[in-house]
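Quick start: read one record
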Amino acid sequence: MDNRITLRKYFVSLNFRSDSALSKKIDGFKKRYDPKYRQRAFAHMSLLRPFEISAIDRNSLVDELKEEIDTFFFGHTSTKLGFRGVGVFQHKRSNVVYLMPDFSDDLLHLQELVLDICKSFIPFNIKYKPNDFQFLPLGYFDDVFSLTDVMEQAKLEFTKNSELSIESINLYEQVNGQWNKVETLIEFENSGDTFLQLQV
């Protein structure tokens, strides 16, 4: 009898509406500059670092996340995430150009709630270290020389603080090296996007 546990890797993401001016600008920027655009075309931002749990626990995880997220957003039909400026994060041999999120207190609390739930399903023998911060990727670059030009262009194009409407919160699973959406945890109504004056 095989008692080995099958582990699967997951993450929870905020998925954004694609019909706003900022979403279209992000998509256009990624099409022009991100060599891995086709692999990461959907507009999303992970709420936490990917984690591993037993495959048989997935349904229980989904049920708990749905219940807590529904309760958290009770009475709210829409929500937004703000962004402020661009940055670069080095990941292994790649450099990630990103938009920095400006979490409201409510969304910070949601992030902590989701992280605590997901960590409770991680087997005790699996080490897990949360990321120091999360961001919205604009592109992944191996060439340091092209990175300088990309950063300059990003600073020109994303000069305003802005907000994106969150379309849904989803659970993704990695299968054969590809991330697939396996569950929508909550969906929101469309309330439009706003552009804010840049704060210096």
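Residues 31 and 37 are 6 Å apart (CA to CA).
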